Amino acid sequence: MKPVKVVLYGVGPIGSGIISLLSRKPWAKVVGAIDTDEEKAGKDLGEVAGLGHDIGVLISSGAREVLEKASPDVVVHATSSYLPNIHAQILDCVNAKADVVSTSEELSYPYRKYPELAGKIDERAKAQGVTVLGTGVNPGFVMDALAVAMSGVCQTVESVAAERIVDTSKRRWQLQRKTGAGLSVEEFQRLVKEGKIKHVGLPESTMMIGAALGWNLGDVQEEITPVIAEQRIQTSYVDVAKGSVAGVRQVARGLTAGRERVILNLMMYVGAKDPRDSIRIEGVPPIDLTIRGGVQGDQATAAIVVNSIPNVVAANPGLKTMIDLPIVHATE
Ligand SMILES: NC(=O)c1ccc[n+]([C@@H]2O[C@H](COP(=O)([O-])OP(=O)(O)OC[C@H]3O[C@@H](n4cnc5c(N)ncnc54)[C@H](OP(=O)(O)O)[C@@H]3O)[C@@H](O)[C@H]2O)c1
């Protein structure tokens, strides 16, 4: 079998993790890399992604040129979360006749928030004979596709609840900062208002579950509140005083006829007790699943992106979500 030719679009920490895993897969060949960061352009992808050796692929900021020259089968895309910011990047890849696997949270289920952009991507992908998928650990798996998969053993489902509790104290500084660790409650609330403290993707996960289970969910209700430190917590990056913010709690609810059908509860804070991922389904039979310790986000995102590639390559053309494709599994 000819190796799948892959271009990486976005050489940040996530793109680097993806390329580190992908470069160990015999079925894939990395043929190009795109990033607008001037510090990265012109450097070897292996060096920038931290592989410890060059791989003979230079990073370039000229997306269209790279896509034309490298002619990839698949673009792995990891530049940004918001669909209005990335849809032109996705269309460039589609126009180059490449399948796309993206970590953009809003692309994981874009039909409710951006029906027009979703329609445009779907139409163009079908015209070009390629497939586009948004995925990742969350959205993309632990709070949506996993819950949908578990419902496969249920005769009836009344409601689905997913909970993800992440202890950020051993994670990157960026994640601790993004979740408000060390802030006062007032600062936290100001940043929430400015949209700077927010996990993107809970409404998308809620809608994905609703769509899979045939529930016509109305507006998804979302709330973001601080988790307050009950005692002083020190990490390598931040000293969190008792009474200040340890992190964030974000809840999304999807309702039909005033009844809660999907409830997603995401808590990310330093010193989180009993980190875990859990799925509870009220139905016949009921399901109560807990992954103790929780799934490590960055490793899992790299894995699910890489492991989705064979499914995406084999899929019919168009814009797909994780509930449209066969179960993703690990690959050698
Ligand atoms: N679905 C999930 O479960 C999941 C999990 C993890 C991450 N994500 C998402 O995946 C994305 C990537 O994560 P990250 O932590 O690696 O982000 P990041 O640190 O922002 O890195 C993104 C990289 O892409 C570059 N870039 C930005 N816009 C570009 C453009 N138009 N063309 C080419 N390169 C561009 C950035 O350059 P500059 O620094 O110069 O902007 C940066 O080098 C984020 O949106 C993140 O939220 C999703």
Main features:
alpha/beta, 10 helices, six-stranded mixed sheet, seven-stranded parallel sheet, binds NADP nicotinamide-adenine-dinucleotide phosphate, 332 residues
Commentary on this structure:
With 332 residues, the chain is an alpha/beta fold. It has helices spanning 13-22, 45-48, 63-70, 83-95, 115-128, 145-150, 173-178, 185-193, 202-213, 297-314, and strands at 4-9, 28-34, 59-60, 74-77, 99-102, 131-134, 156-167, 221-228, 233-234, 239-240, 245-256, 259-269, 276-284, 287-292, 318-320. Strand 2, helix 2 and strand 3 form a beta-alpha-beta unit. Helix 1 (13-22) crosses helix 10 (297-314) and helix 4 (83-95) packs parallel to helix 5. The radius of gyration is 20 Å and the shape is globular. The structure holds NADP nicotinamide-adenine-dinucleotide phosphate. Residues 10-15, 34-37, 78-81, 89, 103, 105, 136-140, 301 line the site of NADP nicotinamide-adenine-dinucleotide phosphate (NAP).
